[in-house]
Amino acid sequence: MATTTFDRDTGRQDHSRGAVAGTAAAGVFLALVGILHVLQGLVALFNDEFYVYGEEYIFTFDMTGWGWTHLIAGVVLAVTGFALIQGALWAHTLAVVLAGLSIVVSFLWMPFYPLWNIVVIAFDAFVIWAVTTRRRELTRS
After folding, report:
1. pTM for the structure as a whole
2. What is the torsional sign of CA 103, 108, 110, 113?
3. Closest among 106, 98, 101 to 81, alpha carbons compared
4. If DSSP codes are grouped into helix, strand and coil, which group holds residue 56?
5. pLDDT tens-digit profile of 36-89?
6. CA-CA distances (angstroms) from residue 71 to 5, 34, 49, 101, 136?
7. How far apart are CA 57 and CA 25, in angstroms?
């Protein structure tokens, strides 16, 4: 069970090592997801013919639009991941929202690179779990 202590002299709360490690890991995974999105975006922008899909897909978008979507989302995700590692409180809420949006974008992008997107979705799910678990501990204390 996670323990949280409060130091009356300094006014600081010391949270369990597991919660802090989980949040740091979530920050690393979120930054990694951001970097993966940036790479997908750059490939889509610089080489339109790299991504191909066989069957008609209901969510068909222009490759340049996808490239910019992935590039911008990736930068925002990476910055939020690094802020989460640093312990910024605003990054907790934003990380959950952005990881959820990343899951949706990765699902829509699934026909172009299925295995890659399954990995990204798994990382995003871990981020949501780790950040919300730590949030519950902070709320209890």
Report:
1. 0.75
2. negative
3. 98
4. coil
5. 889 988 988 888 777 666 666 666 667 788 889 889 999 999 999 999 988 888
6. 41, 9, 17, 14, 32
7. 35
What are the residue ranges of helices labelled H in the chain? 17-46, 63-86, 89-108, 114-140
Between CA 45 and CA 135 the distance in angstroms is: 37
Tokens of 12: 């600081």
What gap in Å lies between CA 30 and CA 83, rounded to an integer?
10
Name the residue type at position 15: H
Residue 82 amino acid letter = F
Residue with tokens 């690179």: 113
The three-state secondary structure class of 2 is: coil
